[in-house]
Amino acid sequence: MLKKRKLFYDSTKRVINSAVASDPDDVLKSNSKMKELNQQYLAINNLFDELVALIKERGYKDYNLEGAMRSHAHWLEKNSSIEPEKILSLRRHEKDFIIRNEGTYVVKLNELVGNLQWEAASKRGLKSKNDSTLFRLRAYQDCFNKIVSLDNRIGIKDNSGLKRGLDTRVEQLESSFNQLVKQANRRQKDLFDQLNLYYLILMMSLLTISILTSYFISKKITQPLSELTHFVTRFVHSNFDENITNPRVKNEDELGKLTENFVILKEEVVSQIRHFKWKVDERTKELADANRKLIKLNEANSRFVPKEFLQFLSKESIEDVMLGDQVEHEMTVMFTDIRSFTRISESLSPQENFDFINGYLKEIVPVIRKHNGFIDKYIGDSVMALFPDTPDAALFASLEFEKSVDSFNHYLSTKGLEPVVIGSGIHTGRLILGTIGNDQRLETTVISDSVNIASRMEGLTKMFGCNIIVSEETVMKLHHPEKFYLRYLDTIRVKGKAKSLSIYEVLQVEEGKHKASYQKEFTEAIEHFKGKKLTEARNRLAELNLRYPNDSVIQVYLQRCDEFIKDGFPIGWAGVHELTIK
User: Fold this and answer.
1) pLDDT tens by residue, 51-77
2) Sequence ranges of the domains in the chain
3) What is the pTM of this model?
């Protein structure tokens, strides 16, 4: 980063020095502008260093303030007497604020912490433990509020605070730099026009002198004067070609001296033109370098704003995108996530964490692009991808992830690290792609309930121990369902939704063939379970579990049977599994 700053400063200084050299009479003015640009650059540098210091103070994942906050939260989850559902709500408010940066979640979290502190203080039976709980709650709340304060001051998520100030100063520096370049270009053109005028006046003066001299002198000097006039004419018509042969001096009189002086003048003109061409070539090279930098900047923009977004918004380039541009389209949304990444990251340094995630993304992102998908956003180790063509493409990509993860795990084994397992959730529905933000900063995003459902699908992979789970809408819209091995898992209802949703497991070919061999028995057992015939369902499932102990879905239903046999069916249960969290 420091090297890039120095290169930018040196480039700016070279342009200003070039402007000074092209206009020696305007040195004081150019130096003043150089100082102004330098002050703007130093201000940006100081502001950037302050921004970096605040980001480091805030921390990330398990480091600094955020790391301390998570440490207190983990203690509360494991050691406090607070109900797990309330701890889960506390963490949900924390995560919602970090992702969405909305003040509503700050208020909710502080209100919940206040309630939990009151409850812990009111329980006097376990005073020592409650004192520790109160201390941890206060420490957790203090860390969270400090993070909120730092985020507001930094302003990266909503382009406010220091981030907005940095953008404004960069724009001011760009404006000053462009004005200086325009001034230098105008001055260069004026000098070029002035030089041509001087040359024209000089040539006309010489021609006039030649004509007057030929009128008053004798025939003795007519021929040398004609030769000189002819040379001058050829020199002018040749656009001041330095290869024009100089005239010979035949006499030592005034005409001879005139010829000698014109030769000297010709050499000086040629020298000045040569110097001028060198300056033009230098300026042309600088402009070419600036153009190459602009091209690289456009290429960098395309890495932050996917070109697919521009295509769906019917925009030629990022310059055409306006606040509020949006389009509705049916797409397939995929969420994929590394299992137990938090535990893995605890054993890695910050740099190793970034290398780990980037190495993983290097393997799976090409698979997404191979199947005509594109990345909407990265959320830590999670990836949200969109497939605009067919749901089939999303399923093919998720199945191909296995090879990519195998390759990544081979790399991890060389580093002495444990292998990873990923889960993918897929849902198909209508969504809105568009831009949000303000006039100073825009961001492309996707707004739809389909995104939330796809995220829930990914979360269910942990519950059922599956690698890929898709919704019923995705299965119904497959163009070639016969190319996939699908197994019905359950019918669920997401919290806050009235409509239930059937979900399916997507299997690799060999695994699909194996599970197809007992699919009929599995289906009958599930039908008994849904029909509240728990004894028959459990007997069938227990038999299947003995034969296929590695099938985690059978174990999930066995556990449900045991819970319902022990506690009875929930009130109003009709075979639909209710998700208790959003």
Assistant:
1) 888 888 888 777 888 888 888 888 888
2) 2-58+160-186, 64-154, 217-293, 310-483, 508-582
3) 0.51
